[in-house]
Specification:
This protein is α/β, with parallel strands linked by helices. It is 47% helix and 14% strand. Helix 6 links the parallel strand 3 and strand 4.
Length: 253
Amino acid sequence: MLRSFAYATYTHLLRRQLAGATLPRHVAMVMDGNRRWARQMGFGDPRVGHRYGAEHLDEVLGWCAETGIHHVTVFVASVDNVRKRDSAEVGNLMRMIEDVVAERLRHPASPWQVHLAGRLDVLPDSTRHALKRAEEETRNPAATSHLTIAIGYDGREEIVDAVRSLLAEAESLPEAISSLTADRIAEHLYTSGSPDPDLVIRTSGERRMSGFLLWQAAYSELYFCDVYWPGFRKVDFLRALRSYAARHRRFGA
């Protein structure tokens, strides 16, 4: 009881500190540490952490909506995660994405329009179909809340694919070279049309980007949190926003 009261009081204090503060328009999150959390919690099979992590996304999206953040990008799995991890673990992760993430986002009550970023061809057919269905069924020109799911994603491959697409679009090599600008490359990224993230949060204590949004996050503020994704609490989220609000963004100047 006392612990719950202290938590609620601290959460309220953090919300008060953020009143009137400059908050990010777009938050990107690396949802890391599902298996380590499961081991920490004593589960015999660490793969169950993927289910808890997938279910936790719902709650975190609710926090984003509460604080007026309407652009969110989540890093679900890299190309290497899909290609190099144990097939049983990858299969379990893909089922969680199909059964939890894709299904819940398709619910009529969900305010989020789904966008996909990555090499969908590396995913199992069922996972690719479930995600594409969620993307199609949530498409709405009037939508104000946008969730991008980065899956089968690698930031370096994304840049290579963008350059290839731009070159293929040009009718001649001189034209291709002359049109090779940063803005033109950005138009061909997987995330084209979405604003660059203002804040990137990574859970689990790891302090690296792991190829996530390498182009888009050039001027993003980075926040590394020492808790695993399923244990990422509202106070951790609000602390990240408080840290962001206290920084002076210079965009390379």
